[in-house]
Design the sequence.
């Protein structure tokens, strides 16, 4: 599914815009990463894209049709959202939580059927969390909770997956698990993925396109390989860095070695 | 599998408890009636059983105890279900059905009714009307362009509640202290004394319809308890469902208050007791709170009418019995509701 933002403009106050005239296009099965320092409005940008906040100007388009022209329930059959992981007020069991993801396919009064339970279990199996089925979410580790939220998003069989910092607060193994799942979904199921992340090297690892922005609606967007480079990291993060490469079994890995904070800040 | 079976067993116990208590309650009271007689009297209304009992017994069972017992169970169930639904949609375990000011409004309506008229039906109608009016006012205050933010609703509820509580005080202040004032005070503390078959016909259908609607929506309540954006992204029309639940709960609570005054606590603690027994999944929790609520209210009402010669107001008992029990549960589970 083609997901496009045209001239997206938003600010919580009219006189100070967070971003202005953002344009981006993501095709079937592509991965877009959104980078930016703490507090520049990455989550806000996602919320605008999904219609939780109203663009001041511009719009989101799904297959070139305006987002607002779709009925809300039809949108959420095709788009799934993975919010930043936090424990719910009333902790449900893992299977109950994942089942909620089937809701876009259910009518106003209906309840999950056997088919929904089976679909939930097969997604949990795929993400290797079926063993957690009857655990209560408040007992899970951060990595497990993130996988449960991803299972809930995937169980509605979406065409677009939007994730808000899915790998924050996770150890490196769990970060890789999350990134691998995202990559697998985009490759195997052709799901379009949009990810907010704090880690430019994760952008290098999995994404096709990248948007970086900072305060004062200053942004760049393009192919990840062209956008995530030493000079842009200096420009947007105010950090001097070196990008290092390593090749193993014909796979090229890149990492970003931060050297120091640029002078003008210190 | 093991877990489902365990849950089914718990459910059966929860269903049986109020039914057993219902039968026991028929025999309890100042005028003793043996269980077999009580049972035959009730059955004689359905099957042709030859009367072997005194007519006074029949009168007490059918006209006094049975309506009261039925109303107690249904009101208990209604308040508990409302509390459970509210705690979920407000995402706050401290919320009770009274949070949007319905009870203060209904209480004011009733107090005004008692002040102006002696007719019980007028009092009930005014309670119902003002209860609903109070929630409409709350909703209007909180209303923004698109739906209502939860904290706005809760704060508006506090405002409306405070306003009507002040009006209740005003009515108490001007009421005749020998005649109307005790009646108002007694009524506000809640009692099922004096409910009749007529109340059964007026109030019960309203509460039952409300309960059925929440039962039908019970699985969706799981999703509504998540953050608003999460719920929306799961394809739920949050504002529509919230409004339905608020309307339904308001009708249940206002009707309950009009039948038996303001009964506190039950809508707050029964949901938590339910959570401790069956967990948080509202698909099971909602039915569980129906039976628990009915059971608890029946129990309380039995104590109210039997413990002393004069009836003890319900609100006193729900708290006096409920608070220590809740404290015990809280200590035992460490506040982890599952």
Sequence:
């Amino acid at each position: 599914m083609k997901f496009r933002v045209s001239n997206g403009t938003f600010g919580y106050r009219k006189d100070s815009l967070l971003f202005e005239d953002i344009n981006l296009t993501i095709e079937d099965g592509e991965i877009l990463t959104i980078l930016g320092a703490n507090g520049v409005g990455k989550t806000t940008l996602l919320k605008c894209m999904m219609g939780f906040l109203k663009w001041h100007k511009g719009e989101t388009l799904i297959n070139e049709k305006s987002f607002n022209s779709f009925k809300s329930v039809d949108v959420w059959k095709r788009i799934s959202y993975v919010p930043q992981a936090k424990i719910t007020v009333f902790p449900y069991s893992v299977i109950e939580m994942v089942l909620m993801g089937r809701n876009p396919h259910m009518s106003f009064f209906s309840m999950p059927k056997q088919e929904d339970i089976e679909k939930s279990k097969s997604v949990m199996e795929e993400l290797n969390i079926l063993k957690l089925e009857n655990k209560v979410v408040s007992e899970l580790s951060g990595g497990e909770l993130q996988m449960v939220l991803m299972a809930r998003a995937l169980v509605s069989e979406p065409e677009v997956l939007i994730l808000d910092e899915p790998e924050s607060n996770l150890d490196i193994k769990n970060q890789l698990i999350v990134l691998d799942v995202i990559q697998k979904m985009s490759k195997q199921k052709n799901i379009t993925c949009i990810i907010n992340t704090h880690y430019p090297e994760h952008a290098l690892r999995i994404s096709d396109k990248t948007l970086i922005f900072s305060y004062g609606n200053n942004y760049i967007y393009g192919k990840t390989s062209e956008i995530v480079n030493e000079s842009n990291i200096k420009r947007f993060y105010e950090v001097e860095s070196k990008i290092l490469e390593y090749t193993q079994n014909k796979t090229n890995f890149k990492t970003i070695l931060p050297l120091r904070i640029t002078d003008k800040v210190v | 599998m093991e877990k489902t079976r365990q849950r089914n067993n718990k459910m059966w116990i929860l269903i049986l408890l109020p039914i057993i208590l219902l039968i026991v309650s028929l025999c309890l009271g100042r005028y003793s009636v043996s269980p077999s007689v009580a049972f035959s009297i009730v059955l004689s209304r359905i099957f042709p059983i030859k009367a072997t009992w005194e007519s006074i017994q029949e009168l007490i069972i059918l006209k006094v105890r049975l309506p009261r017992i039925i109303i107690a169970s249904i009101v208990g169930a209604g308040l508990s279900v409302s509390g459970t639904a509210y705690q979920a949609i407000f995402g706050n375990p401290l919320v009770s059905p009274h949070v949007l000011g319905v009870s203060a409004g209904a209480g004011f309506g009733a107090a005004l009714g008692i002040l102006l008229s002696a007719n019980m039906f007028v009092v009930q109608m005014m309670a119902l009307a003002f209860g609903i009016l109070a929630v409409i006012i709350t909703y209007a205050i909180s209303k923004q362009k698109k739906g209502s933010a939860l904290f706005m609703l809760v704060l508006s509820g506090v405002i409306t509640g405070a306003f009507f509580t002040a009006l209740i005080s005003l009515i108490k202040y001007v009421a005749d202290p020998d005649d109307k004032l005790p009646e108002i005070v007694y009524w506000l503390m809640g009692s099922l004394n004096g409910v009749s078959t007529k109340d059964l016909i007026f109030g019960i259908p309203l509460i039952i319809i409300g309960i059925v609607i929440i039962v039908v929506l019970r699985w969706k309540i799981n999703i509504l308890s998540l953050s608003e954006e999460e719920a929306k992204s799961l394809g739920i029309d949050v504002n529509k469902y919230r409004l339905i639940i608020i309307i339904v709960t308001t009708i249940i609570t206002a009707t309950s208050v009009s039948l038996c005054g303001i009964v506190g606590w039950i809508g707050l603690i029964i949901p938590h007791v339910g959570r401790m027994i069956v967990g948080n999944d509202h698909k099971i929790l909602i039915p569980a709170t129906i039976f628990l609520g009915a059971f608890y209210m029946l129990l309380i009402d039995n104590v109210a009418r039997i413990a002393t010669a004069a009836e003890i107001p319900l609100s006193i008992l729900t708290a006096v019995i409920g608070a220590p029990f809740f404290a015990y549960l809280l200590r035992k589970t460490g506040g982890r509701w599952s």
In short: The interface with chain B takes residues 47, 50, 52, 72-73, 76-77, 79-81, 83, 88-93, 96, 100-101, 103-104, 109, 111-112, 134, 136, 138, 152, 156 of chain A (CB under 8 Å). The CA atoms of residues 88 and 196 of chain A lie 21 Å apart.
